[in-house]
């Protein structure tokens, strides 16, 4: 290493405006160039996996809300999916459709926040794109509030279905939202996609090559931006995703710009899925009969879904008691974060920040 | 030189010093309110609307808040320099206004014959204060901010001054009053490229908009003033808006014709014209700031040296040739300069490569 100036060590975080929670990057700088980077996790560890082992299967659902709070519905879904697989529980078709609707709404909402915060990190210093995106997120939160009364931690999915049917006014409101969302996405693209400064800042910056993306087990938009067409909704279909037509957008270079583009394109696909789901939504019950205290047979299972951030999986071991014997979570963002150093070294400090932002992390999930 | 009131030096300086301090403080408060309301409008929200009608008293409430806050100095900071920095940053802002013509022949120093030179010299001083703040805080974020400040301000001073020189050529004088006086056609029409270059470099100089790297909140927290709180922070805040005011006032004077406008026979109307132009320029700054993401530090330097600097030089040559050829400001000049500005910007943006990017690190 040839150093021109004396290297300095800068601790970015745990308390820093752009670490999206409490995360620490120990960065060695040569002037403004990042020479070395060490991500340090664990400031938000709450022992959720251990807590889950002291609760019944149903009581674990509220814990999953707190994991990835920007896409709590998806976490609910990942967990109940694993338990249903373990205990062999059938889910009514209407409930599956409602789950898909919730998942896709959650994907739009989460991607809105991801893109908004990405531009925040890029220094839209007074949050303009983010505030525009809050406007649409607000509508999604209203929809969630209709179905379960909550706006952040939903606790809506149940083992065997969902807690209650959607209210009458939900479907018309959803139709309105689906009709106007493409216009809003166009608006963001007008503001951001061709913006010269955005291109300067994000094109070719923070590249994650295809091989490295696969080898580091990255998933979600981070993997797809590197050009790998891998989406669990297609690769290992769950719920009723095989009933819908949608595409899996991928990037080419795997840079920050591609990760942004993939998220925008995924939002468009989510709108498409929602349109189809509204048309196909069947009637019937929304939850099958499940005993209050579930005793799944002895065994182990792994259920995973495609959350907005990537693959989230629950590995559950059952000993036929009322609580999981062991529960392990495969967090999408922790594993995506492990490639951070390779993406950042050699770039400037400002690039380190936006590359970190482009991964779309949620520290609550990383540290659990 | 008119000494108003009473033809007495001391009375004149006393009255005008008071006017300038009141003008700067009140306008800065109006700027703070205006910017926050404008942000609200741009971002589909209200902005301040609780303290007083339309939130007019919000800057007052802010001022009271920062006055009551504890003033913390880091244990390992260089105490004296840490204390001195905000003062050094703020003083030049007031000093600049000594030569800004408020109205025909009225100002603290009416008709300083090297007015614009004085402005350039004084406005550069604040960078010393910024670097002092960054260095004395004993914080790496602050130090990075301070270093960025030096690089940025030194680089952007050059296109700024070159664009000012074209104005000097057009008006044939360094005096601010003579420059305003010679603007029968406002100079932003005569040299649009010069105006653009001045505006962009001024934005970088006063640390605003896409060029606010000194305090890039998402990267280095708050840059050079990370470790400042209470009244000292307020001084930096005041200085930042004061600089914006100063730059808007200079731009209004040099390019938009200062106090001149229909009905400027009356002093009050003249001052209103000046204020309206100042607020227009400030609105442009707000607009840019609220829309664009921030540039990276090497891209910022590249933009300054590879884009603005050559364009400023070419613009200077064009204006100089026109002044030699026509001798007087004519409508032809406007036509030629608008054409030249369009062609130059197009051609140069094709040629312009930012470069920079990844640095290979050998293990």
Plain-language structure description:
The complex is a heterodimer of chains A (368) and B (363). By secondary structure, chain A is an alpha+beta fold. Chain A is built from 15 helices and eight strands. In chain A, strands 1-2-3 form a three-stranded antiparallel β-sheet. In chain A, helix 3 runs antiparallel to helix 4 and helix 4 runs antiparallel to helix 14. Chain A is globular and about 70 Å long. The model of chain A has no long low-confidence stretch (mean pLDDT 87). Chain B is mainly α and 363 residues long. In chain B, 67% of the residues lie in helices and 0% in strands. Chain B is globular. The chains are: A alpha+beta (368), B mainly alpha (363). At the A-B interface, helix 4, helix 5, helix 7 and helix 14 of A face helix 6, helix 10, helix 12 and helix 13 of B.
Write down the Rg of chain B.
21 Å
The profile of the biggest β sheet of chain B is: none
Sketch the topology of chain A as an H/E string, one letter per element: EEEHHHHHEEHHHHHHEEEHHHH
Which stretches of chain B of 5+ consecutive residues score pLDDT under 50? none
What kind of sheet is the major sheet of chain A? Answer: 3 strands, antiparallel
- The number of strands of chain B is 0
Mean pLDDT of chain A: 87
Please state the structural category of chain B.
mainly alpha
Shape call of chain A: globular
